[in-house]
Write a structure and sequence with these properties.
Layout lengths: L3 E9 L9 H24 L10 H6 L3 E8 L2 E8 L2 H4 L1 H4 L15 H13 L10 H8 L2 H6 L1 E6 L8 E3 L1 H13 L4 E13 L4 E5 L5 E5 L4 H6 L6 E10 L5 E11 L32 H6 L8 H12 L1
Parallel strand pairs: 8-10
Antiparallel strand pairs: 1-3, 1-4, 2-3, 4-5, 6-7, 6-9, 7-8, 9-10
Helix pairs in contact: 1-5, 6-8
């Protein structure tokens, strides 16, 4: 398998240049290494994490080797080699992908990680390149920047200046994670339009023509799913949302025939909204009394004394 040479520029507060301490090198790679497999998996499977051992193609794709260290303008340059995804994950590229995030065959895991950081830096709430778990990976890099790192520059492609990762990108990841709705359990019916064994993914076409992408828990489930191809299917699982509130994917936990299912299951439910923090207004001489006053408050926020007083007013 061919490997591409790439460079990672790391600017440190102590300006280590071509003589970085081992501890510093270890901190940088501990922050970046988990991002490799998670980002590639997100791009090709639609989810950044999964139970069980990673597939062989993912281990090959994330196999990045350090081949040297140099310095330029006091920045430390890590010289690495990474395989192109078209070779490392050949079996995946032989099939059409369900995900719009599928990288070019010449791209490496380093390039894919750079694209994730790009979307997070731009606070792209519609991006399909990350989910909440991947955002948490970026947030965990906070200690790396709090320690000695000023910035990291990753090659986004073969040419160009690349992607600059700074503490501000970590801050953006925190804001996006806060905006991302919690997943919710759903039942969803639609026409099973596609199955991808290599990535455990499937496509569900809804009655309104929209296509929903889903991920199975295991590759074994793809065999059982084949009997429903081209037929109506009921998927039981979790709806995973983007920070915008739109659906990102369905994490399928089970499925059965969709024939005879209620119409209610034909639409993707919106994320559950959190109740806004109530704003307490101090009473004034112009406020209404009695029943009007009661219905002008947020129920459940009163003290026991206030509640008893309102009951007395209601009773007259």
């Amino acid at each position: 398998m061919n490997y591409q040479h790439q460079e990672i520029f790391v600017e440190s507060r102590d300006r280590y240049g071509d003589r970085p301490p081992m501890e510093f090198c270890g901190s940088v790679f501990r922050g970046l290494t988990p991002m490799l497999g998670n980002s590639v998996r997100m791009a090709l499977e639609g989810t950044s994490s999964s139970a069980g051992a990673p597939p062989a193609w993912l281990r090959r794709a994330a196999d990045v080797r350090v081949v040297g260290v140099s310095g330029r303008d006091a920045a430390t340059i890590f010289h690495v080699e990474a395989p192109p995804l078209g070779e490392a994950a050949k079996e995946v590229y032989l099939q059409d992908s369900l995900w719009e995030t599928k990288p070019a065959e010449s791209a490496t895991a380093i390039n894919v990680v750079a694209r994730v950081f790009d979307d997070v830096a731009r606070a792209d709430t519609e991006s399909g390149r990350y989910d909440r778990q991947l955002l948490n990976r970026i947030i965990h890099m906070r200690r790396l920047f709090d320690d000695r790192v000023v910035s990291i520059r990753l090659p986004a492609a073969k040419t160009g200046e690349g992607t600059l990762v700074t503490p501000q990108v970590v801050d953006s990841a925190m804001r996006l994670a806060h905006r991302t709705p919690q997943p919710r359990q759903i039942r969803l019916t639609g026409l099973l339009d596609m199955i991808r064994h290599s990535t455990r993914s499937f496509g569900l076409k809804l009655e309104d023509g929209a296509e929903v992408r889903g991920v199975l828990e295991t590759t074994e489930q793809t065999e059982a799913l084949k009997q429903f191809l081209g037929k109506k299917l009921l998927v039981l699982g979790r709806a995973v949302y983007r920070p915008s509130g739109k659906l990102l994917r369905i994490d399928a936990e089970g499925f059965e025939t969709g024939e005879g299912q209620p119409v209610l299951f034909a639409k993707v439910p919106p994320p559950r909204e959190t109740r806004p923090t109530p704003v307490r207004v101090k009473p004034s001489s112009h406020q209404r009394q009695g029943v009007p006053a009661f219905f002008g408050t947020w129920p459940g926020e009163e003290t026991d004394e206030e509640f008893e007083r309102m009951l007395v007013e209601l009773r007259g």
